[in-house]
Amino acid sequence: MEFISPELDYAALAPMIVVGVAAIISVLVEAFAPRSVRRFLQLVLVFTTLIGALVLVVLNSGMRVLTGGQSIALDGPAWIMQGTILILAILGGLLMAEGGVDPSGDAFAPRASALPGSEDERQFTIRGYLQTEVWPFLLFAVLGMMLFVASNDLLMMFIALEVMSLPLYLLAGMARRRRLLSQEAALKYFLLGAFSSAFFLFGAALIYGYSGSIAFGPISFAITTKAGENTLLLIGIAMLLVGLFFKIGAVPFHQWTPDVYQGAPTPVTGMMAATVKVAAFGALMRLLYVAFGGVRWDWEILLWIVAILSMLVGSIIAISQSDIKRMLAYSSIAQAGFILVGVVAASPQGLASVLFYLIAYGFTTIGAFAVISLVRNASGEATSIRDWAGLGKKSPLIAAIFSVFMLSLAGIPLTGGFIGKWGVFAAGVAAGDAWLVIVAVIASVIAAFFYVRVIVLMYFADPTPDTAAVVIPSGFTTVSLAAGATLTIALGIVPQPILDIIANAGVFIR
Amino acid sequence: MTEPGIFSLLWVLIALPLAGAAILLFGGRRTDRWGPYLGVLTVCTSAVIGVLMLLGLMALPAEERSITQTVYSWIAVGSLQVDFALQLDQLSMVFVLLITIVGALIHIYSLGYMAHDPDRRKFFGYLNLFVAAMLLLVLANNYLLLYVGWEGVGLASYLLIGFWQYKPSAAAAAKKAFIINRVGDVGLSLAIMLIFVTFGSVTFGEVFGQVGEASEGTLTAIGLLLLLAAAGKSAQFPLQAWLLDAMEGPTPVSALIHAATMVTAGVYLIVRSHVIFDAAVWAATAVVVVGLITIFMGAIIGSAKDDIKKSLAGSTMSQIGYMVFAAGLGPIGYIFAIFHLLTHGVFKAGLFLGAGSVMHGMNDDVNMRRYGTLKGLMVITFVTFMAGYLAIIGIPPFAGFWSKDEIIHAAFERNALIGVATILAAGITGFYMTRMIAMTFFGKARWEEGVHPHESPKVMTIPLIILAIGSTLLGMALLFWGNIESWLEPVTGFASEPTPFPTWVYIVVTLIVVIIGAIIGWVMYARRPVPIEAPRGSWLTRAARKDLYGDAVNDALVVRPSFALSKALTIFDARGVDGFVNGLAGSVGAISGRLRRTQTGFARSYALSMVGGALLVALALVLVQS
Amino acid sequence: MLKRPSITRGVPRAVNVYTPILVLGLLAFGFAAFSVILATFTGPKRYNRAKVDAYECGIEATPQPMGGGRFPVKYYLTAMMFIIFDIELVFLYPWAVAADQLEVFGLVAIVLFLVNLAVPYIYEWRRGGLEWD
Amino acid sequence: MNPANYVVLAAILFSLGAIGVLVRRNAIIVFMSVELMLNAANLAFVAFARMNGNLDGQVVAFFVMVVAAAEVVVGLAIIVTIFRTRKSASVDEPNLLKY
User: Fold this and answer.
1) Nearest to A188 among B162, B197, B603 (CB)
2) Domain containing A401: what range?
């Protein structure tokens, strides 16, 4: 048996290589740099890296290559999603870098290892320690996501999944305030996440058993050529989908979402909510279209069910939420359902509309969480919706911006969300899923209730004594908030440039 | 199809008020001083451009009177190709004129009416926003863009209804309007989806071009959904509940949005989609029924309310009922629906502004039982109000006579029974409008002490005068000089059917009925003294005072069952929205309250549901395998 | 190169050999749900610390100083390091097997791998993870 | 013997792992069960590699081992933190986030 060393297209891999190397360097920074300069060095390193990688992605965006022995596919959609992930990661990173909002430092615990409320923690807080390990985590997570959307075989996809998830598990547990909630979120996220990836892996094993290969190309070939018996294949697909549905937070694999969103530090929640959705949907679509396009009729009905469940359960439960972060979590479940409508379409138009939806959703979400991180009271962030009453009078600008995000999520015209919704719905209709679309429209109306309820509360209710106050942030949050708001509106009024870029990207290569 | 000369300014028509709104709303305090005047200026300019375009359009031969201007390609993803394109044809033209001219007058009037309000800058910003959105609605050349305007006018109207937020009733009314309208909007979005499914396009031209290929079932469904949308915006049965509460807003708003323009958007939608309704008989019939029911509901409510604005609101419902009804009659009615819409827009705006002027003089008291014998003290208001009065009850030669008479005639062309019904409704109109002027301008003074009625300033009375002139002449002008029938025919088509009697018979009969109604009203409210405390009145009166139990019915049907559960929705929001809104939201909220308990917080139970889901997924795949 | 045996040898086409897996999954789920539910209804609710210990032998795996003082994480650190540095080296075997065939590429790859492996080690060392006390 | 049996064994191990996650209360045991599931997948990979007569499966197995190790480290870190905070490793005790 002889081995051939894989050929690697270094130019195409450059963005990921950059991020990976930077991640390792930032670990070394943690090791060698004295505490005083760590934060500064890390910030410089992280943002130069992300921007550099983004530039490389843009330069590469013409390439359509399969590299690493077919295990990595860098095609139009991959570039778009990598670019989106990088931009969203930059905005999310800005939120994580915000140090001016919490009187005692940034959003993360001074020492994640110190016992909450213990003497140690008090000391660390007083000395103003910062947990700068969050930056290597961010970089590794981003690397995982970039790999996730580009991975073209099951092994690569599994590795990417883990590289993406492990840092996020840890980040979720590092909140400076409400440590108990934060740690609980981390534990739940980790246990359930590991559980789901076990399913993914076993599914991969079954697929390998069926097709004799882990690469998508051969798998789809096997599906088209092999006659008869394919139970093994279907069970395998099912278990792979469990892993991915978990990541996109689709019903019935959604239950971690509210708890983690609420418990994790708000900047992390924002970053995670935006980027992981992009990455997971990218992987899901590549898997379904490239590897399992041959059995489309089998998984389509399944996606129907999951999409409908997600839309309805998400929108309905969100109505009775009293914590804004939980509400947005359920909203993200519902949004996952809406996006699935576009995925079911399984057409180039569907792919394009999903990509647009993901972009619009990402910016809106980051912006929304940026606002949440600013609305505070004595005990930290005022996440109870009650405390937002009359915010429109106390700080009209922030309230207005938040309203824009809510309207976009609700799909009201002239926001990115509206175009996105119409895109996926139209794709679904074009693919002949009219009934699914009708359910989606109804669900989106239910959803409008709770989005608008926040607006109504902010504007048509009078401030109460315990109405939260808006903290004036430093440049970091301001930039990412402004970017989020501007893009949300711009995508609603002049979406065409983005739509053109997506259209030129074409479809997944095989 | 090109856009020669003046028509290249089509987008400016919308851009001007939009820019005004932007400057006023984001400009902050520094625009307080000159802001309102800017608001007035933008709308007046739009009005001028509108008039120029009318001249330009008249210069063109009839078949070329449809100009499309593609501003830019808005959405183009796969089979969904939508341009941000404006279309000016005879139908849009008349709406543009109505919106800009009436809008301009009401802006001017507001300068006086809102003179003392601290937030007048914001008020004018909202008004400009509304005008922009409404223009977009009527100028859009596809359903999706129309939907944008549709939501826009909605938004503006909620903001303006709730403008005086410190009044809980205002905030509640705004919420109620919003949520009831959402129901209508579902109808519209579903309709657009269905249209897109059926025709693969949402552009008016392309859709209407291929209506023939669609099955009647589909068209009926689309028609009914469009009707639902129209009912929501135009306060037609069964979604009428919000309009009366909407009177919480400042009076100029009631005049502009809730009488002249926005509430007629439903009529526009139906007439614009007439090709669909022509092909779907049942949908058209439904339109007629809804219109007829609303005509009477509105009239009866209008007869019982003592609040002058709510009484006018009732009459608005009733008059829009006439338009919807006419639109349902098909080609014999479309033109007259629009005709009545125009005249009504003018004289009802006049009446509302007149009412506002009266309130202005009476320290914002709205209770007609506290008015009386104002005719001597507010001469201009009185005279202009009389013009509107004669117009709405349809006395020749005033505007309302021509348009309403045409609708009644059209009704007889279709079916004598509904014809008689419309005549009766006209009689009731005569009754409640007479009651209104009798209680307001005649009889004895029943004022609160300390009230010193006085005429309003010029800036308010001049618009009244202009509108009064309109209420007097517009009907004849449109009919004889502007011959609206041949003007609109290319867009809406026109047909006429023979009726058993010559036209003059209907006219005379209608007049007799109206005058009888008016006399009854006069005898009851001008001759006899009007008690300050409202008498118990007949069961009908009592019912009508409660908006004919519009809310109560919803309450009994939906709210009560899910009342306890609807708490779940209104946890933090004590001022829940009344009517079926609570019911609707409540029942969803109920399910929500149950569902959220599934989120137990135990990681292991989450895992269990994941395994369950996994097996579900596996089974689904294996069992349905093809 | 062993020849590929047919998966479905000697099994009639009618029954599918992988249905057992699915059935087994169903059984597992059923059993889990059943036992959890049964336990909630019937089982005696006498929880004590021992019950929830890692090893239900009554002896605490990790002694707890009262009042949440410092806590000996060393064991865990050591354990984790062992796991990482022990298991990562598994990659050396396949490389060793094929080293001669994947000439330079293989060498570079494995060196890079070892460098990557060294990084966390350095981190651990600099942050005092290696000092026993 | 027929390698298909190994697949069945893998399935059994996987199911056992799943049951473990569902019924055990101690975070560390739950976590061990997850690892069991991963290793079941490994076994399946190797068995299939044998059936398919190519090496992919075995390669995957190597990677999975390593990933599992990384997961162990992260997981232990989280569990230890929780354990120190709450003086208990029960997965049912952290139950503040719900509904």
Assistant:
1) B603
2) 10-505
